[in-house]
Amino acid sequence: MSVADDNRPIALAAGGTGGHMFPAEALAQELKRRGRQVLLVSDARGARYAEGFPADEKFQISAATVSAGGLAAKGLAAISVAQGIVTALGKFRKLKPAAAIGFGGYPSFPAMKAASLSGIPYGVHEQNGVLGRANRMLVRRAAFTAHAFPVLEKAPAGIHAVEVGNPVRDAVAALSDAAFAPISADGDINLLIFGGSQGASIFSAAPVKAMAGLAEDMRRRLVVVHQVREDDIEEVRAGYAAAGVRAEIAPFFTDLPARMAAAHLIVSRAGASTVTELSAIGRGAILVPLAIAMDDHQSGNAEVLARDISGANAAIVLPESGFNEISLRQALEGLFAEPARLQLMAEAAKGRVRSGAAAALADLVEGLCEGGPMRQSGAV
User: Fold this and answer.
1) For a surface tag, which of 23, 162, 231, 346 has the fewest beta carbons within 10 Å of its beta carbon?
2) Is 1 among the domain residues?
3) pLDDT higher than threshold 70 for residue 129
4) How far apart are CA 18 and CA 171, in angstroms?
5) Model pTM score
């Protein structure tokens, strides 16, 4: 059956954070270019990132993790997952997807379980360097396990694993040739700071204090764009004003990829999407992996940019336990003292993560639509 003859949608399941939603959105954009219909399955948290998601239909399911909390919490989570499966089964029977892809996060498991029960072939995509727990429960029955980075830890033997990279949204791909603006001896240095899609209080106080401690001539050269929690905006704004640092502050920037391209340096978490976008656009960073991330996967993500390749690395990693105004100020002082190093870091970042992921993943999906078999080893 050709694409033109196949009107069945492709179901994409993702939720929780932008780290799961953005790669799903990038695949949706590619599938739409190929004439495919797209169905988004998410939860209430994921819906916050789905306003511009190019889906022909969207629906929410209940979902939760059964790996946390006591017996009561696990029981409630199991009920939520079961309800999510039932909802997805009903929708799938009505809409008859040709294939389904899970991107991790809580909604991915019930959605892919419903796909399996409905006889719909499915694959999974893992954005991080460590296979997430939802995906870990799905990969043995998945037709493929697509992954972002060269190494995928905690992946069981015998699965069909394919390194494709992390799909990036069109807004990011369009900036892949954005040139790094040279820094003159007394010119502005553009610094972008954001704490990830879930926000982070430590990304409010420490950067302001770190920059207040820089020499006056350096503070005058800084132009800061800082994504800050709503509750912290006024305090952060006052801190920058007192330090004499030019700063634009907001709780969220809808044009974050463009802000990344305009930056000379980025201070951020080490989520998979962030690491991938740094690689796609080509910018150096100070990365602070989220300490409570499941299986410490952000440290593995950060290593993709931090490792020294041919005498160059693209990132400095500051563990969250040691991230404070002193450690950040010292890192900034070292980089700003050698502004040419910022350009070297940007060049080193370029291409660290495999490019063309959206197209490669779409090829795998279309293979399922054309009759690719379900894997039969193990169970969901």
Assistant:
1) 231
2) no
3) yes
4) 15
5) 0.84
